[in-house]
Amino acid sequence: MDLQQFEIKILPLKHKIYRLAKAMLTDTSEAEDAVQDIYLKLWSSRKELEKADNVTALILQIARNHCIDKLRVRNRVQFNSLIDNDENLSADLSPYEQAEQKDLVKNVKQLIDALPEQQRVVIHLRDVEGLEMDEITAITGMTENAIKVYLSRARQSIRKSFLGR
Amino acid sequence: MNNIKELLQKYFDGATSLEEENILQQYFVQTEIAEELKQYKPLFGCFAALEAETLPNTAFDEEFSKKVSVHRKHHGLVYHISLWSSAAAACVVLAMGSIYYIERQNNYMIVNGKRINDPEKALMIAADKLHLVTGKFNNSVSHVQQIRRVGKQLSVMEIFNKHDHSTDSLNTKNAIKTNEN
Question: Is B64 on the interface with A (CB under 8 A)?
Answer without folding.
Answer: yes
